[in-house]
Amino acid sequence: MSLSELEFQAQTLGAAPAQAIEGRSQWRLTWARLRRDKMAVASMIVIIVIAILALLAPVFASLLHHGPNQVFPNSGLSSTGGPVSPGTNGFYFGTDELGRDLLVRVLYGARISLFVGITTTAIATVAGVAVGLISGFFGGLVDAVLARFIDTVLAFPFLVLALSLAVVFGPSLTIVIAVISFFSWAAISRIVRGQALSLKENQYIEAARSLGASPWRIMFIDILPNIMAPVLVLATLSIPAAIVFEATLSFLGLGVQPPTASWGNILAGAQSYYQIAWWYLVFPAGALLITTLAFNLLGDGVRDALDPRTERIFAARKKRRRRIWAGGPAAVGIESLVAPSTDGPEEA
Amino acid sequence: MTGPITPETAQVDPWPTDADLTDDVLVRVENLVKHFPVKGSGLVSRTIGQVQAVDGVSLTVRRGQTLGLVGETGCGKSTLARCIAGLLPATSGKVYFEGKDITNLPRRKMQPFRRDIQMIFQDPYGALNPRRRVGSIIGDPFAIHKTATGAARKKAVQELMERVGLNPEHYNRFPAEFSGGQRQRIGVARALALRPKLIICDEPVSALDVSIQAQVLNLLADLQKDFGLAYLFIAHDLEVVRHVSESVVVMYLGKVAEVGPKNPVYDTPRHPYTAALLSAAPAADPEAAASRQRIILSGDVPSPINPPSGCRFHPRCPKAQERCATEVPELEVKAGDMPTHLTTCHFPVQAGEILARSGRAPRGEAR
After folding, report:
1. Chain B: nearest CA to A333, how far in angstroms?
2. Strand order in the sheet with B198-202
3. Is B110 part of the contact surface with chain A (CB cutoff 8 Å)?
4. Which chain A residue lies closest to B179 (C-alpha atoms)?
5. Hey, which CATH number is domain B8-37+51-267, 3.40.50.300, 3.40.309.10, 3.30.360.10, 3.30.420.240?
6. For chain A, is the Cβ count within 10 Å smaller at the N or the C terminus?
7. In terms of pTM, does the model score above 0.80?
8. What ipTM goes with this model?
9. pLDDT tens for each residue of B277-297
């Protein structure tokens, strides 16, 4: 052993205690795995870009001097009175049948979509987790009542309820958010209830009870962290569902009302014009598609990242790829499927 | 005692004559019964039977001492422990802690006693929440009983970790990052946090390998010395129980078979079941093992839903006679025993008696 090696050892030994020993939490490991998933990272970037564009929609509107509901009968309409195509007269996405800037309207539509997606998911997650936890943890009569209620909500024809509510209360954003939240929490509740039912039998719950922990403390401190993983996946996947739901309601005229722009009501307007103005249909539909696809792919990535077995799948994939490049046998042996994990005892 | 003193309850008190020891009594369990209803299937489930998990058990844990509780799997040891710790409501009977009746107290009224009665669990993997950091797990008792917060709590937790032989630097680690023995130490630290008077150890070393068992047992012994703890030590390993306990209770199918100071129980067992258990335990000394007579019990432990009549052990007992099937034996001192050594048997084993191998077909066994 050379002197420099000894010195190096002494240094690392001396340095070690100074560094605080920190356990690797589930979230940190998940984040590490998520970062290696190219599709998930790409989706995240797309979502961030869409969110920034939505937030900055008024800025774009003022830069272009085109308000979202502002009508341009001269520059925005062709000589025959139809919408102008993208690129003409400073309308980068073209205009609609009234001569409004489609780019600005799609950006404002993103605000509505993201707002609805995030608020309804937040409401549905909080309500779903609360109801599911209470139902699963307390059991007995409470569970019987709540579980039947969950089943009832899941069995409800959502469009019929949305229609009748819109008719009774008049269509508005509030009704849209209320309806979507009401139909989203039950799915989360059912998963949470099942998890709570099985988790409450764990010995650490009995340990908490023997320490005198209250039922609420056990629910929120001992059980909740253990169900956050599936809840996070469900929440991520429920955002695109809510966005599509909002678009559907607005398309049917039951959601966001014109002239306020929403992807759904822009598409409803495009119905009569797409044969002469393809951009009228393609831009809002493309925005809707890209947004929901990005959220769905991110949700899948989060689900994979939360599953500790993913580590092994990654390792196996990497090994197989290397072998193919090396010209070796492409067949995947059993050893690559059970490749030892390099990432600590969590995967053991 | 609140109920009427019947001859039965007076008789089953394990240490009735040691008047000078009454001040030392920490926990008294009197005639504890725990039955679990068996529900029938169908739309409206109705109770079709009772699992008689614990059926009239009395015992006493004395301050600063260890009471061993042994018996086969399913004999009601853990159920008894959970009833004492207030985790399961007792069907009947009484649990007294320092003379106060703590049977089936509602959670809030039980809270002050929780500080004094703590538990260590069998499974060092299952008893720690995998999503919480060790510091937060050990700090739980402080948080629940609001005795320390913030930096004071962290300091107390780190002292506890040091005391049980864990590196306090590992405060922020997760249970998955520890070995089985270390995890059991975490469980011990958590149980120790509020300076309890009694720790109920539910098979604390059964899940550990032998070298680690010794470490954890030595730790428990040290802590007992330092803090004057009393243990109710549940195990199925007879040698472990002999090593740690002052007194031993042998349970069979929800009832006490034999109770007494460990040496008489181990050296001159009076109940045939105790004798059979002891003869089945592997001996470390091969010569002793070779010379020893092995009592082989036939059949399985009968179902606690429909236990045998009379003495619950009679279908498997090598000494069983007609009387055993009809008459329930009382827990009492047998001729020639010290007054603290009690046995539930009509025909106790005599010193030096060779028990015939039980070759009889199991009789009256309910399946």
Report:
1. 29
2. B117-120, B198-202, B230-234, B66-70, B247-252, B255-261, B342-344, B331-333
3. yes
4. A345
5. 3.40.50.300
6. N
7. no
8. 0.80
9. 888 777 667 776 666 667 777
